[in-house]
Amino acid sequence: MIVKQLKYRSKEIAIKTLYLIRHAKSDWSDGKIDDFERGLRKKGYKDIQTMGSYLALHGVRPDLIISSSALRAQLTADELAKRIDYAGKIHYMEELYLSRPERILNILALQDDQHESIFIVGHNPELTILANKLVDNQLGKMPTLGIVKIEFDIESWDQIDEGKGRFDFYIYPNQFRYYMPKQIRAVLHRDKSLLGEEG
Questions:
Q1: 3-state DSSP assignment of residue 169
Q2: For the chain, percent helix, then strand, then coil, each to nearest 5?
Q3: How far is it, in rounded angstroms, from Cα 5 to Cα 13?
Q4: What is the reported pTM?
Q5: What span, in angstroms and rounded, lies between the C-alpha atoms of 95 and 91?
Q6: Which residue spans within the chain are E strands per DSSP?
Q7: For residues 108, 120, 131 and 33, what is the CA-based torsion angle, rounded to 10 degrees?
Q8: For 57-100, what is each residue's pLDDT tens digit?
């Protein structure tokens, strides 16, 4: 169990960490495909390489990944898992597709407390609304593959609630459009086919 010692308290407080992740940029090239079955654009895969490399370099690896079962979310979860060397299970849930924020909270509340950190891969506007409720903040609309990290001073996932979260970071692909840390660039250069792609 990951435990952080808070200076102003005499006892140790367990920390639960939640990552809210919007799926990567989806493919709209075929208007006949049902929304649930849309895949990812080349840019979506490229963004996953960038964001996944950032998470890996910062040692981010969750105990559990829960994803919407919509194809674009599944592909995002699968590819991110590869980038961060996540070897655990990925739970695909139809309930996360076009689900209300309250439903997402209910799903989190049911998770095993042995999991200290969880990825939720889903959709807008639900994830943006949920992030703002949890940290009592006003984040703008989460772009594709936007990632919000929120920490909670709780021992059990069923204690998660609005306003209890502590904002840690918010990252998204366009932040790396003009500046990319050398470590990430070096990782991406290993797969030259992903560099310079458009679309």
A1: strand
A2: 35, 20, 45
A3: 7
A4: 0.84
A5: 11
A6: 3-4, 13-14, 16-22, 64-68, 90-93, 117-122, 147-152, 166-171
A7: -120
A8: 899 999 999 999 999 999 999 999 999 999 999 999 999 998 89
For residues 122 and 104, the answer to whether their CB atoms sit within 8 Å is yes
Burial 144-153 (b: 16+ CB within 10 A, else e): bbbbbbbbbe
Hey, what's the torsion of the CAs at 163, 169, 171, 175, to 10 degrees?
A: 130
- Nearest Cα neighbor of 52 from 6, 121, 1 is 121
CA pair distance 157, 110, nearest whole angstrom:
7
Contact present, 171 and 57 (Cβ < 8 Å): no
Domains and CATH numbers, the chain: 15-110+119-194 (3.40.50.1240)
Angle (nearest 5°) at CA 24 between 184 and 150: 75
Q: Which residue has the tokens 């924020």?
A: 101
Alpha helices in the chain (DSSP H): 42-57, 71-83, 101-109, 126-135, 182-188
Specify the pLDDT at position 99.
87
Residues of the chain with pLDDT under 70: 1-13, 178-199
- Phi and psi at 104, nearest 5°, equal -65, -40
